[in-house]
């Protein structure tokens, strides 16, 4: 039996790539897409293949038998779609970033209440998962850390979901620390970036970039840099494919692809 999939956000940079991936995968079946309500734009590629595009998620979930929702939209709509899907016991694979902690906690609780799998991953690139994992190891030895994330200039959320997740993973192993000089002063606001428990996060947005992150550790007489670059959006597809396969056997919420990979 093929896994029946709906993709929300099929016209986006990630959505287009995900549509191709799902259509190319013999074990997957794309049964529909969900596009935004306010734009009546045809999606010719989907029309040719006879794949319905719904403007209303409720209608989509009513009309189609769905195993997994893949959401690649914006946090506001993604939250509504995921909540609706989980309440109907439709599993979710979510790449969208920019959720509040409260939204993440509510989706977690809803997945549990409905015994339904939900993987939310701020980054699906396997190299990025390793970059975060290696950073967590390095942070045990080097507690002075600056994260520099660089993305294309059409990204709406900052800092990136990956940078937030990296800081969260590091905080699990690093004691709280205020970095830099205790009397340090910003003579231009924002010069030192954001601070998460003392870890500094800097967000760069430029045309030409896709998704990149460096985690720089400083110690006595040395620095260590752990760096990952996504050159295109195909780099995320292997992780989405794996998540769809894994979520079929899950009955709860998982935040981060590292939790469904064997990194031991
Ligand atoms: N997890 C990862 O590995 C990963 C990788 C790349 C991007 N992202 C995230 O994925 C999301 C999408 O990124 P993108 O670069 O494709 O953005 P994009 O702007 O190209 O695409 C977003 C799509 O969502 C659609 N959309 C907006 N509101 C909608 C609604 N209410 N219903 C349905 N569709 C709606 C837009 O029309 C657009 O087509 C972002 O949150 C981004 O941060 C995650
Ligand atoms: O918006 C993007 O493009 C990306 N966002 C993710 C994030 O916020 O971490 C990472 C991959 C690309």
Automatic annotation (TrEMBL):
Pfam families: DapB_C, DapB_N
Active site: 151 (proton donor/acceptor), 155 (proton donor)
Gene: dapB
Biological role stated in the UniProt entry: Catalyzes the conversion of 4-hydroxy-tetrahydrodipicolinate (HTPA) to tetrahydrodipicolinate.
InterPro entries: DapB_C, DapB_N, DapB_N_CS, DHDPR_bac, NAD(P)-bd_dom_sf
EC number(s) per entry: 1.17.1.8
Gene3D superfamilies: Dihydrodipicolinate Reductase, domain 2, NAD(P)-binding Rossmann-like Domain
Amino acids binding NAD(+): 9-14, 95-97, 121-124
Protein name from the UniProt record: 4-hydroxy-tetrahydrodipicolinate reductase
């Amino acid at each position: 039996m093929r896994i029946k999939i709906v993709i929300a956000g099929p016209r986006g940079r990630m959505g287009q790539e995900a549509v191709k991936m799902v259509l190319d995968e013999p074990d997957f079946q794309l049964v529909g897409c969900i596009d935004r309500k306010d734009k009546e734009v045809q999606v010719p590629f989907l029309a040719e293949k006879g794949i319905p595009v719904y403007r209303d998620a409720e209608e989509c979930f009513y009309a189609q038998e769905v195993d997994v929702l893949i959401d690649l939209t914006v946090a506001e709509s993604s939250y509504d779609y995921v909540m609706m899907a989980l309440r109907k016991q439709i599993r979710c694979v979510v790449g969208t970033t920019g959720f509040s902690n409260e939204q993440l906690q509510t989706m977690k609780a809803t997945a549990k209440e409905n015994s339904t799998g939900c993987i939310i991953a701020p980054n699906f690139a396997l190299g990025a998962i390793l970059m975060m994992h290696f950073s967590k190891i390095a942070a045990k030895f080097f507690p002075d850390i600056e994260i520099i994330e660089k993305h294309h200039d059409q990204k709406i959320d900052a800092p990136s979901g990956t940078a937030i997740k990296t800081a969260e993973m590091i905080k699990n192993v690093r004691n709280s620390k205020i970095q830099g000089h205790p009397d340090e002063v910003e003579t231009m606001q924002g010069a030192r970036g954001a601070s998460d428990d003392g870890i500094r996060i800097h967000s760069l947005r430029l045309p030409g970039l896709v998704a990149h992150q460096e985690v720089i550790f400083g110690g006595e007489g040395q620095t260590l840099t752990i760096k990952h670059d996504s050159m295109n959006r195909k780099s995320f597809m292997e992780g989405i494919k794996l998540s769809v396969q894994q979520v079929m056997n899950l009955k709860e919420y998982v935040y981060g692809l590292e939790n469904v990979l064997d990194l031991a």
